[in-house]
Amino acid sequence: MNNNKQKEIKWLNARMNIVMTVIAIVILFPIALVVAASFRVQGHLYELNLIKFWTMDNYGELLSKTHFLVWMKNTIFLCTICSFIGLLAAATAGYAFSRFRFAGKKIGLLTLILLQMFPAAMAMVAIFKLLLTLGNATGGLVGINSFAGLMLVYVGGSIPFNTWLIKSYLDSIPKELEESAYIDGCSPWRTFFTIIFPLLGPILIVVAIFNFITPYADFIFPSIVLMDESKYTLAVGMRAFILNNFSTNWSQFAAASVLGAIPIMILFFGLQKYLVEGLTKGAVKG
Q: Which has fewest Cβ within 10 Å: 68, 89, 121, 261?
């Protein structure tokens, strides 16, 4: 009987290994094609001779003859600010919904869920009109063709989902910690920042990663908000490689994709442990 069970377990493991191998191939194959294309001579993208048409010129021209570094700087700046502001906004909102009782609390939580049901693309026209109005009211500081206007869009759009994540995580933290602080004379703000905020490390990292990745990979909103090429994000700037009126440079586009993926890979591999922990605790509690 034990031998039969061992055989079943081995057969099950073998099938799982086969399935995981197939999934890995499906996932890695497009990545391998992009990396290979980034080293191919322009115009020889589909040649089978890898040695004859192998070149590093795509990366050299990308860094020296295009605005890639400017686009990368704009993107990292935008993502960092959005991540920081969105993190503070979602953390304070999640703490309020988790710990305090106030009128409209249930309606507010329900509203946050409902906001997540509608894709952001549905609000593009309204957002564009709102940014036009804000731009006229602020002299262009917050509006069309400004990073502040784009930050407003991303931070506002990230608050509902991130608030729920942080609230669910906070519900797993005992309230006795705060009650002890209140007895010692701490105010709610001091209690939050000195006692509760450090305990939110894993879920805060999850939220920060989400807030960083969303504007990093987005193309739609930057393309309708940013007008000057010097303000383009990486996704918008890369469009020029494949929509040029006279040529389509897929090799440089692939090279830009490879270099552009490096910051996200560093972020994920460096914070992978906290990402898994934060998602697990934030998903099962509440």
A: 121
Length of the chain: 286
Looking at domain 60-284, its CATH class is mainly alpha
**What is the three-class DSSP state of 195?**
helix
Nearest C-alpha neighbor of 214 from the set 228, 235, 240: 235
Is the separation of the CB atoms in 13 and 28 below 8 Å? no
What are the structure tokens assigned to 260, written together? Answer: 């552009």
- Number of other residues whose CB lies within 10 A of the CB of residue 103: 7
HEC per residue, 220-276: HHHHHHCCCHHHCCHHHHHHHHHCCCCCCCHHHHHHHHHHHHHHHHHHHHHHHHHHH
Query: What value does the CA radius of gyration of the chain take, rounded to a whole number of Å?
Result: 24
Give the Å distances, CA to CA, from 129 to 90, 238, 277: 25, 26, 40
pLDDT tens string 30-59: 888 888 888 888 766 666 555 566 888 889
